[in-house]
User: What shape does this take?
Amino acid sequence: MSRAWLPLAIFLVLATFLGIGLTLNPREVPSPLIGKPAPAFTLPTLAEPQKQFSVEDAKGKVWLLNVWASWCTPCLEEHPLIEALSKKGIPIYGLNYKDKEAAATAWLKRHGDPYRLSVVDPTGRIGIDYGVYGTPETYVIDKQGVIRFKHVGPLNPQVVERTLLPLIAKLRAS
Amino acid sequence: MLRALVLAAALAATLGTIEGDARAQATDAPAAAAPAGTAPPASTGVARPNAADPVLEKRLQAVTKELRCMVCQNESIADSHAPLAVDMRNEIRDQLKSGMSEQQVIAFMVERYGNFVRFRPPLDWTTIGLWFGPALLMILGFGALLSQMRQRRNLSTMRAVPELSAAERAALASLADGDGPRSDRTQNDKTGNR
Amino acid sequence: MIPELGHFCLILALVLALVQSIFPLVGAQRGTESWMAMARPVAQGQGVFVTLAFVALVYSFMNQDFSVLNVAQNSHSQLPPLYRFTATWGSHEGSLLLWVFMLSGWTVAVTVFSKQLPAPLVARVLAVMGMISVGFLSFMLFTSNPFERLIPAAADGRDLNPLLQDIGMVMHPPLLYMGYVGFAVAFAFAIAALISGELDSTWARWSRPWTTVAWLFLTLGIALGSAWAYYELGWGGWWFWDPVENASFVPWLVGTALIHSLAVTEKRGAFKSWTVLLAISAFSLSLLGTFLVRSGVLTSVHSFATDPERGLYILAFLVVSIGASLALYAWRAPKIGLGGSFDLMSRETALLGNNVLLVVAAGSILLGTLYPLIIDALGLGKLSVGPPYFDAVYLPLMSPLMFLMGIGPVAKWKKATLPEMAIRLRWAFGISVVTAIVVPLAMSAQTGIGTFSPLASFGILCAMWIASTAITSLVQRLRQADGPLLSRFARPTASFYGMLLAHFGVAVFVVGVTMVRGYESEQDVRMRIGETVQSGGYTFRFDGVREVPGPNFRAMEGKITVLKDGAFVEVLAPQKRVYNASGMVMTEAAIDSGFTRDLYVSLGEPVDNGESWIVRVYHKPYIDWIWAGCFLMALGGLLAVCDRRYRVKVRERTPKSGSETNYGPGSSPGSGGRPSPVGTSPLTAKLGSDPNYRPMDGGLR
Assistant: This one.
């Protein structure tokens, strides 16, 4: 007698999972690099190609690494927020991803340059090291050079208010 | 019956022509047209493989079929045309050439993109259900089948005729010999209905 | 005006569907004749209004009415007329309307072909189908209205996705939906039987043709989807274990289990509660598939762009409908009873084994498809489960099934003995082993791939086993008949021939898959004009590229001449298209299909400053056998449905005599002797004297 209730029970468990699934985003993939040291790179800067910048140079401060490109439309969406963050005094370094130098420079000139500097990754090789799969992406890196947070896609005010700023404050304090 | 055959033949003919037409990419323009717009020198040799090293390409195919394209809707980086997929293919090709093994390449990608990038999930405590599930279902299924069979057999033995006493057996024997009143022996006709 | 009329028709259809759901059901419970009689006309009325709504949407598309949002999103002024028509179901809203249209079609079919069924049963079946209609119509009207207006109207549309601008779009969704929706009929019959408590082999007899027809449509729909992907996507793959593909395959597996289980319930009165559960599950899985495609919980190339609100609505509908059915099952199932008994070695066991394997396969594929979701919901991270997993799991499950396919048709009902079957099957086994050795050796020699492939050998073994045991069972059947040889072929029923053909189709399918997987070859080359490449014994010569305009695209078309041993075979013209409206680039492969192989060519990009082109050349042996096999399966199903006993005309409505009414076809003397509760079916009276109907003998069916 009790065995006949098994199909219903299984179905209800399944339906619960499906319901939870509706609140999730299957395309959103958490980064395995959180809590790990930011992968090292030494790349030429956009403004002065003969100068190089490496992850080591940013040790000692809490900073953001923002992956952007001139061909990326959502990057334009989040640009005002990046500028606002930069004005707050948060150091933001750009990773110009798979772009042409001329186009990138023109883009910054047209929309404003919020970055301390931007490094150039024309082949996307460093992007692979950081697990980049969609521009724009933003990483929060702490004083020891460890990645503490990653946001895929354009930033929005909620993420900035609720997650980014508190985290940066916390990391600065420690 | 005949109607069914005619219908089936019609369906077959329709499907056949559809599949045939859909494949035919030959256009209506004359076939022997001089290739317009491409005037490179003609050659009569054998075409070069697109890949510099076909053996390496085969290894690349095997590895990239196991990895998911992160920006696509459920494609592998072997099949995808997305820029990220092309980048990853190039990176993996270099790595294989430099001597890394397939496992090392996959580990490299998993380190940067997480287990999501693998189409064949690793076996750890979260994926036990996945890898052993089918076998478990098989065992449960056949177990249920066997217990059902046993239940049926028990039921039918329960319904079996209980042992007769000696007096009852004698009465039965006399009936069978036709000494008693004729029992209404019904015919078991061909339709199986009584 | 027309879109508003269409919208209004949907509202009317919903009202009628509500009436259809409530009154006949209550009427059947109470025995109110007039309320039960409402079912047919109301259902037909609903069908009329749904059809009108569908026609209204088609009209909007054919007339390029860009003031309708759906048309603006999915069509374009340059879209050819055929694709304007298919764009009707090229979106979430449009395909839902197609779904409802199919459902109303099936409902009307039930009203027409149910004259011999008792009124309460028809009333309940139509009521259940009405409830499903209510669910989908309300879903459409509240969240996914296809007739929504776009004001001001767009100047031009966004164009139908170029991938869908193909003849496959005409056939694949309608066939697929005919299958999905058709299982609703078996579902409705099961629910009706559970409600009334009358679950016997007559119920199985009535359900069977409906289920088989739905199954055969689903078979064709899935096969067409696979064939379409093959020639459309440009790299020759034909099955990707994509979540949406799996969502169609899982109900197919359960549906296959169902048609076999129904056979046993009809003939032996056994497996009744299991068959009912399968009938509920098959349709439930169709509904689950609908949810998975439209809710956005899984990533797939097939999924529609939707929002979670719609997903929630479908989920609520799922919980209510499937939950209520399974609760009804749990409540009523224990009262159903066991039916005929049978031995461990018997056809019943073989069929039960078939059922277990099919259901386990369905469960495993569902597990793999949903596992990433489950792990994510439990907060344990993100996983991907793809082809490597499914390939690894599916074959081991299917192997014992293919073995059983040989045993089932040959084993006797109720009791078969191992030595007897071994003797019957010895020739089949011998032939299978021999071909399993010879064919791989021959194929390796011909294509130059490997020397002997064990996997290919296994595949051929299974295929030949299925085919030769099918022939064995035919021979067995012919031997049992008497008379001149040719006339003996008329003795077995259409049902039997249908089974043979369908099983034969499986064998053909297995050959196709085995050969392609084992012996296909690919060449990825850079070709200058005049250069050649070899693949599978054929020579492919590149003769250049030219520009070709299309109705709504521009293309570069290559010319590849195919030769075999110097003799001309074919000219293939692959294209690389750029569509005007969307700018999307599409590769159109060129295929030369043959009985024993396909030659598949696709064009890449120009390289070396336009000197050469990248060309991919494939030789795919026996690949068309994959879809030919599916087609044969469907044809077998069609044949089975044409069996005479489903076309029995009722001569008398009243039962002949007392004794005949008590023992319907449902209880054969071997089955514990309990009389069928439905004693007054006119079908019983007719079949009692039908000489073709012999539930007693061991193996004639």
